[in-house]
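[Automated response] Your request has been received and processed.

Submitted sequence:
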Amino acid sequence: KDWFGEVFRAEEKATSPEPAGDSILPGMAGKPTESPELATGLTPEKLGILLIPQIVPQVPAYVEYVFPGSPAEKAGIKPDDLIVTVQGKIVRTCEEVRKHLQGLPKDSKIILGIQRGEGFLELELDSQ
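Generated structure:
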């Protein structure tokens, strides 16, 4: 299940000739954020995690929202958590989190290293 399916990452601007959509990039409104290539791999959204919008390069992987009932919620991930590792590999940006997740099999147990406040947690998510 894709926990992101009903959430929009941006609102329609009053002056925009394009309809509101899932994307925050100009010219991309109304187009899905997940391309067919990505549909074969894991994404934060498929785990129930909405990361902060990546409007500039090098955005840290802060969790903006956790979908109720999702694998992320069951694992204990919370808004404002910072994802710092995926399967033990350091990630510095939202894009790096996506790349690491996409390379994993869909039935994987996912281990995310989380910085919460001044503490560090390793949380296990079931990707199914």
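Summary generated for your ticket: The first helix runs from residue 71 to 75. The longest strand covers residues 109-116.
If you did not submit this request, please reply to this message.
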